[in-house]
Design goal:
This protein is mainly β and 399 residues long. The chain contains one helix and 20 strands. The strands form two sheets. A 16-stranded antiparallel barrel has the order 2-4-5-6-7-8-9-10-11-14-15-16-17-18-19-20. It comes from Flavobacterium humi.
Length: 399
């Protein structure tokens, strides 16, 4: 769970990487996620290494049809960082998904501090839209699946080659942080894909986005976050740019078509009962050509809310401060907001899900998760929804 996480003596973060971060993790923002991961220093070198693993079993049924029992090695992420010199840091994350079927450099940046409010970052960056995109490590969450809105509406763990500035300011119980980057962008695949709908995650399938921008114009991503240690953190973020190839060798092919994303995120821990709540909602607008059918929506929105309640915190089976949680995730996505031009009826293509869960944390770095999913998904015509339900049981741990 974000902000309830602590580092024990056996998994130390390079102290030089934490120079600007207070010891109390309640005083961090989501933007600090790349700095607050546990890692081990390699002897007396400035290099630190760490990572996490996610694996699970699941049995799901959709309208009475099931693929049976499935074991999944979903991802193995490896972190490497180095304090290159005074106020110059390198951080990276390499992820192996589905047993190595997909390998990606999710994050690899050089951070240069000129002032706590002015830090330069360049390399492969995680675009700070919402909170999950940056703070996505499996061991921090009580659910085996990542949020639908953060992975099937927004492109989950969306990273691009880019550069920009970030910074933070503290004053008593208040923290303010900002990030602003120019980076690689989306391309025509967001409306030309096998999903046959407007689908931003399709852009992740194009590895050339790390080498060239389809439109020739960079994507802007900016975020402002405010946190009070007694109230919680509120984040406001925007990501937008031209996605289509509107010209070739000076010849105009099409008008410039924009994709814009606006997101709000909030998290808090209720005092006394220690209930942790985190939520994120996003709204998307895409300039879809008029020649496309209405199944390609120009507006989308969705989000999720997680509620996690510790019920037991004590020594269990020899683990000090072990925690048993009950939790629930509510989520909704509408991929095509609007009405049919011919009939005036609502366009379908939406999904909602409820996922109760039980989790056990022998330590803050390891979590066992049992989830039950009940989900309804409608097609574009609003026909009776497909119903999916079933169980997931998994483990996720830092190492």
């Amino acid at each position: 769970m974000p902000f309830l996480f602590h580092i024990n003596a056996k998994a130390q973060i390079d102290p030089s990487l934490l120079k600007r971060i207070p010891k109390d993790t309640l005083k961090t923002l989501n933007m600090d996620a790349v700095y607050t991961r546990p890692a081990l220093n390699i002897n007396k070198t400035p290099i630190a290494i760490g990572g996490y693993l996610e694996a699970n079993w699941q049995h799901l049924t959709t309208d009475g049809i099931s693929e049976g029992h499935q074991f999944q090695a979903r991802r193995l992420s490896v972190f490497m960082s180095s304090a290159i010199s005074k106020r110059v840091k390198f951080l990276s994350e390499i992820e192996f998904e589905d047993g190595g079927k997909e390998i990606a450099v999710e994050f690899a940046s050089v951070d240069v501090e000129f002032h706590p409010l002015v830090n330069f970052r360049a390399g492969i960056i995680l675009n700070p839209i919402g909170s999950f995109n940056q703070n996505h490590d499996g061991p921090k969450w009580e659910f085996t699946d990542r949020p639908i809105s953060a992975t099937q509406m927004l492109p989950g763990t969306f990273s691009n080659a880019g550069a920009g500035l970030f910074g933070k300011k503290y004053h008593k119980d208040w923290m303010v942080g900002y990030e602003a980057y120019l980076s690689g962008s989306f391309d025509n695949s967001i409306i030309e894909n096998t999903e046959n709908k407007t689908f931003l995650p399709a852009a992740k399938e194009n590895p050339e986005r790390f080498e060239e921008i389809n439109s020739g114009e960079p994507l802007f991503t900016g975020k402002l976050a405010v946190r009070n240690t007694k109230i919680g953190e509120l984040g406001i973020s925007y990501m937008g740019g031209i996605y289509n190839k509107f010209q070739e060798d000076g010849i105009i092919l099409d008008k410039k078509r924009r994709v814009s994303v606006f997101a709000l995120d909030f998290n808090t821990t209720l005092p006394k009962i220690k209930t942790f709540i985190t939520t994120e909602f996003a709204w998307i607008k895409v300039d879809v050509p008029s020649t496309y059918t209405q199944q390609f929506g120009n507006k989308q929105y969705g989000g999720f809310i997680d509620i996690v309640q510790p019920v037991v915190r004590q020594t269990i089976l020899g683990w000090d401060n072990a925690v048993l949680n009950v939790a629930c995730r509510l989520e909704y996505v509408d991929w095509n907001v609007g009405k049919f031009a011919e009939t005036g009826g609502n366009i379908g293509e939406d999904i909602w899900s409820i996922m109760p869960a039980i989790s056990f944390r022998p330590t803050a770095q390891t979590v066992f998760r049992l989830n039950y999913r009940f989900q309804k998904q409608r097609d574009i015509f609003g026909n009776p929804p497909a119903i999916t339900d079933g169980f997931n049981l998994g483990i996720s741990t830092y190492f």
